[in-house]
Amino acid sequence: MDARRPGGLFALFVDRPVLTAMVTATLFALGTLSFARLPLRFVPEGLTENRIRLFVPVGQDMAPREVEDKILEPLEELLRTIPGVRELRSEAGNGRAFASITLSEDMDPTLAAAEV
């Protein structure tokens, strides 16, 4: 530290704007390079859930009984043909339908989702 100037390191960066700009640019470049090379995974292997959830919005204002008859029953028939389906639950509402598919443990969820 310089004894003649109060402030030490802070004064160094205030008095030398080119040095401040170069340090900032270097830190930004290193951060960008590190972030670009950092392998990130949103869901690590082994933590995937063996469940697929479907939400089917219905454009018309249909009663739950109509949604069940016209949408959920044919959808359930198609979803039961997927290999590895252990359990299938569905729910009908006003203008919407929900379905939840539980897969067997040996079934790959990404393959099953592609099949759905």
Give the structural class.
Answer: alpha+beta
Radius of gyration from CA coordinates: 29 Å
Beta content comes to 15-25%
How many angstroms separate the termini? 67 Å
In total, how many beta strands? 3
Quick summary:
With 116 residues, this protein is α+β, with helices and mostly antiparallel strands.
Provide structural commentary.
The protein is an alpha+beta fold and 116 residues long. Helices cover 44% and strands 21% of the residues. It has 4 helices and 3 strands; from the N terminus they run ααβαββα. A 3-stranded antiparallel β-sheet has the order 1-3-2, with helices on one face. The radius of gyration is 29 Å and the shape is elongated. The mean pLDDT is 83.
Question: Helices and strands in order, then pairings?
Answer:
Elements: H1 9-15, H2 17-37, E1 51-57, H3 64-79, E2 85-93, E3 96-103, H4 109-115
Antiparallel strand pairs: 1-3, 2-3
Any descriptors?
116 residues, alpha+beta, three-stranded antiparallel sheet, elongated
